[in-house]
Design goal:
The chain is of the alpha/beta class. Helices cover 36% and strands 15% of the residues.
Length: 501
């Protein structure tokens, strides 16, 4: 029997609902469950990022209505307000950071608080290089102070109730990452919960034991486990796995946005030359990996993508046998930060730039490539599926599938690029990657139906979960949620008018 702490950090959202579900599961296993509820004392979370106190009240009200009579009596409900230390002015600690590296490494009681705040900022702005002026610091410090309050509260709870297992969602944001860091520091086993699945409105369990959803070794383990325990035949599993790659190419749903929808099938750059070695570089969104930490920080050849691209085209500027094509990720189309805009300033005779909004077909240029270079984007594993030689310049989710080259040095990178007819590392494990995304054999949530319902209210799309009802009505919940948020934002002052860009 374990003493389990479940941190219900973001109520009224799927993050909170899946932890409510897991709390009941842990109780049914005979464990002592302590369900720690977020409340108005913290003042903000991922779904209330501007720290509007009235929205906290609305969220608490709606959460109470939707989970009424659902939580067993043997689960102990804890309120974060009972453990908050209001005075955090500790003379031995200051919020001191002069640059982004300082911020990412910032600790309180030897527990990292910087990564969670930084990751949250990026999630809302897509800006991995914020200026640290007064407005940015005001916002970041608000996140950091809450992380400090959370650490003090969690440490008190762990000691008081002898907690030996922790459940939390995702583990990336400012109201989550510190709890993850506490578990790791104190060697307490933990579970990070998430959702997965190809369907935009149907959600399956995606659980990570002593890991985060972004860990490649853990992801490979989950893919192998689902494959090995599937009820399908080997050929059926291969067919499902292949469907991920085929659907992507055919612009069909695979659970993510279809970024190639506006591209013209078969369209290639006008300067494609079959007499040269055509090497295609697929970049990714710089913000995507900036605040995960761990191996995403340590396993990479260059500090930034543009630095790597410059190094490559510079090194081969005198080699007329090769031409490089930079396919800028369509996800950057509306991004105005320098990590996107500066790519268009690259002016090299051996480099052709294909803009984020270009209708040149990603898969046709991939098919034409003699080699593919990526920064961890899904294009890498898709190119390997096409039997292309793929070189990844950083750690990524398919790191453990052995389908791409991961050079450990610049010298090794030059060797790989110089090798004529570099063999593809395609192998059958690639189907397991696709199978995990496309399979319908994932475990469903048992006590809270977190599948989505979509309502159109005043020309706004309002998405709620099926278990969310008031007086038995999902629609009534959606209307109260939507109208309530509007009232909160109009009548009550946000702590932040806008998140500083």
């Amino acid at each position: 029997m374990a003493n389990v702490l479940a941190w219900n950090a973001i109520k009224c959202q799927i993050h909170g609902a899946i932890n409510l579900d897991e709390s009941i599961e842990q109780s049914l296993k005979g464990n002592n469950v302590f369900l720690l509820d977020c409340d108005e004392s913290l003042g903000g979370c991922w779904s209330n990022i501007k720290f509007n106190k009235s929205f906290c009240k609305l969220c608490s009200f709606l959460d109470k209505q939707t989970r009424k009579n659902r939580i067993p009596d043997d689960i102990t409900i804890l309120k974060i307000k009972d453990y908050i230390h209001n005075d955090i002015k500790n003379s031995s600690f200051q919020l001191c950071y002069n640059n982004i590296d300082d911020l990412k490494n910032l600790e309180y009681k030897e527990i990292n608080i910087g990564f969670g705040a930084y990751s949250t900022y990026i999630d809302f702005t897509r800006n991995p290089n914020p200026g640290l002026d007064t407005e940015h610091r005001k916002f970041l410090n608000k996140l950091l102070i809450q992380s400090i309050q959370l650490i003090d509260a969690i440490l008190d709870i762990i000691e008081k109730y002898s907690i030996d297992y922790i459940v939390l969602c995702n583990g990336r944001f400012f109201s989550l990452r510190p709890v993850l860091e506490i578990a790791k520091k104190l060697n307490i086993p933990y579970l990070t919960t998430e959702v997965c699945g190809k369907h935009p409105d149907i959600r399956y369990k995606d659980y990570n034991f002593n890991s985060i959803p972004h860990d490649a070794e853990n992801y490979k383990f989950k893919c192998d486990s689902l494959w090995d325990h599937s009820k399908l035949t080997e050929s059926e599993k291969v067919s499902v796995g292949k469907s991920f790659f085929e659907n992507r190419r055919k612009k069909k749903n695979t659970g993510d946005k279809i970024y190639t929808a506006s591209q013209t099938e078969g369209l290639l750059p006008s300067d494609i030359n079959d007499h040269k070695e055509n090497i295609v570089i697929f970049n990714s969104s710089e913000d995507e990996f900036s605040a995960i930490g761990g191996k995403f920080e340590s396993i990479k050849l260059f500090n930034s993508q543009i630095e790597g691209i410059k190094a490559i085209v510079d090194h081969y500027s005198g080699d007329s046998s090769k031409h490089f094509y930079l396919r800028i990720h369509p996800n950057l189309k509306k991004i105005t930060y320098s990590y996107h805009k500066d790519l268009y300033k690259l002016n090299y005779p051996n480099l052709t730039i294909i803009g984020a909004d270009s209708n040149i077909d990603t898969y046709s240029i991939m098919e034409k490539a003699d080699k593919v270079i990526v920064y961890g984007s899904t294009a890498g594993i898709e190119a390997s599926y096409m039997k292309k030689a793929v070189i990844s310049l950083r750690y990524c989710m398919y790191y453990s599938f052995n389908i791409a080259y991961f050079p450990k040095s610049i010298t090794e990178l030059w060797h790989l690029i110089d090798t004529k007819n570099l063999p593809s590392l395609f192998n059958p494990s690639i189907y397991r990657y696709g199978f995990y995304i496309m399979s319908d054999e994932h475990e469903r949530f048992k006590h809270f139906n977190v599948d989505f319902l979509n309502y159109k209210i005043a020309n706004n799309n309002v998405k709620i979960m099926k278990f969310q009802k008031i007086l038995g009505s999902n629609k009534l919940f959606a209307y109260i949620y939507f109208i309530g948020k509007k009232i909160c934002s109009i009548l009550f002052k946000d702590n932040f008018k806008e998140i500083p860009q």
